[in-house]
Amino acid sequence: MKINKILFYVFLTIFGIFLAGDKKSAARQPTPTHVRFQLTTVAESSGKREVLSQTTIEGAPGIDFNIDLQTGNFKMQSGFLTDLIAPDKLKLRAALNTRRFYGTSPANLPLYEEDSQTKTFEISFNEMLVLLPFGRGSMNETLKIEITPTLLSASAADAKTPIKINFDKQIPSGEITVSAVKIPHRFIVEAFLLSNNRQIAAGSAECLLEEIGEIILDAKTSGKPQSVDESLALKIKIDKYTRNRPKDLVGINFSVDRKSSATGESFSIINGAAAINIIGEEFSYRLENDQRLKNQNYEIKFRIRPAPGEQAD
Amino acid sequence: MKCDYGEQISMLIDGELSAAASEKITTHLIECEDCRALERDFLFFRREIQKPAAELGLVSSAASIKVSEKQKESRLKLLFPAPAIALMALICVGLGIWYFAFYPNKNKQISSERESRAVPETGYSNDSSLARFDKGGRAEIYIAPRETNENQ
Known about the structure:
Chain A has 313 residues and is mainly beta. Chain A has helices spanning 2-28, 291-294, and strands spanning 33-45, 48-59, 63-71, 74-86, 89-104, 110-124, 127-132, 141-153, 164-169, 176-182, 186-195, 198-208, 212-218, 230-242, 249-260, 266-278, 282-286, 298-306.
């Protein structure tokens, strides 16, 4: 009886510890969130405000959306990459391209006025982004597109649901179109340095889509009469993620510099190289531009995969 | 012809001689057949010259032929009177100003007509579409407080 009681209490204690641990781990798990963007097209004229169209985009953080406007002799293409960088802060990277018919040349050929802008904003959820497609223009008449983000809590099941786009109110002429997509933004880039098909260095870094990341590969050889006290600095930018079947593709731009730790000098070996490959698979690049490295048959292998938690819609 | 009064006879007809000289020449004309013939010729030619002017009405009366003592110095005769010439000059200046002032605008009008004839990207008219907001400005994007615009 006593033994049974002891065993019962031990079992209860273990069970209690187990429950407590489970609660803590649950508390450590981030609360699933959704981000909702409300895109409102507003015409302001003589102090009056008229809502012309309204679109709502909702989904897991990391939504990318495009707002295109085409009217008369003017065309605007805008793309927005969004990332939740803090519980109360959103990073918005905007790319604006406009094209306006200007007139005709003396040879009667069409002339266009083009503009391209890229801007990065860190916006909190009590702010909004305002896009003026035609600029501030006249004080009496202005067209605005207001992008209002809202952070929502979501259940674990909702966290993985696809993006929702609701066209609450549309402009009858269809001059403004909105599209959204969910692709991975954070990637783990692994780079391996091979000499005569033998791996001698490796490095990895987490890179954000369309931002440059750096990986240092220490090219110190061992077991050879002369040690190469140098390192290779690999700067890589993932500039494209393409939906494809059976697997998605990722495009990169990279450059390789050789740095001497003794002298501190840096020499460019590869500048402006580009590659596109299947996500998750390896691809290699031979380093033949530097004479010293060429003798060693140096080769860089890449493997790029989405960071944990990232998924394509 | 022996006489040397040709010029004086012409001046007599034009009324450009003094009274004494006129009387002298008149007396000579009574005596000299050649000078009388010359006077007739002068008068004939003057009549022929004055005929178109008379038909156009630009010569008001025969009295205008006589030049006053003050106008003897000027022998230059104008086909049209000075006010008419001034009016014509003013009209020419006005035409020149109009030509240079408005002709370049005509070229602009042609260019703008050509632009308007260019097919718009979407084919929508400017009256009902968002193109009415297009004043040629550059696109802008900025952060704004959320409360301010929601209260509008």
